[in-house]
Amino acid sequence: MSATPDTAERTGGCLCRKIRFKATGEPDYPHTCSCPHCKALSGGPMMAWVSFPLQGLIWTGEGGEPSWHYTWPDSKRGFCPTCGTQVCALDEGADDIALTFFTLDDPSNLIPVNQSFRGDAVSWLPQIPNTQHTTVA
Questions:
Q1: Cα angle: 11, vertex 16, 20; to 5 degrees
Q2: CA separation for the pair 134, 109 (Å, rounded)
Q3: 57 with 23: CB under 8 angstroms?
Q4: Residue 84: CA count within 13 A, CB half-sphere
Q5: Which of 4, 60, 119, 129 could potentially form a cystine with 20 if both were Cys, beta carbons 3.0 to 4.6 Å apart?
């Protein structure tokens, strides 16, 4: 079975290219987040995230996996110790890993479906519309 565009291998990494990855599997919940935590970590008005199955992630760069910093008791962020790029977030016991959108070499086919923490968003930037679809059983 060949990979579909939704499950094709994706590559990416940090600014200096020492931390590199390959991610396979279906991307889940592409979204932005405007929480105070993400704003402080990014130095910007929001961060953009997309999750992939943890079992489909391989660290491929000369730097190996990122350095980790716990930002919550059960959640850590991965960053490049050389250039400082925040690459990912990983909750303890999770089956998926959240990658920052723009560490992907080509995020062009991923469109955010929601914006978390709208109440904390800056007033001068339009919010991402909530386009999530729910089904009723």
A1: 25
A2: 21
A3: yes
A4: 3
A5: 60
Percent of the chain topping pLDDT 90: 78
**pLDDT band of 3, cuts 50, 70, 90:** very low
The two structure tokens encoding residue 12: 């990416």
DSSP run (H or E) holding 96: strand 96-100
The 10s digit of each residue's pLDDT in 59-83 is 999 999 999 999 889 999 999 999 9
Residues 6 or more apart in contact with residue 136 via CB below 8 angstroms: none
Can you read off the two tokens belonging to residue 53?
């199955």
H helices of 8-137, in order, are 36-42
User: CA-CA distance, 66 to 87, in Å (whole number)?
Assistant: 8
Q: Is the pLDDT of residue 137 over 60?
A: no
Phi then psi for 94, rounded to 5 degrees?
-75, 150
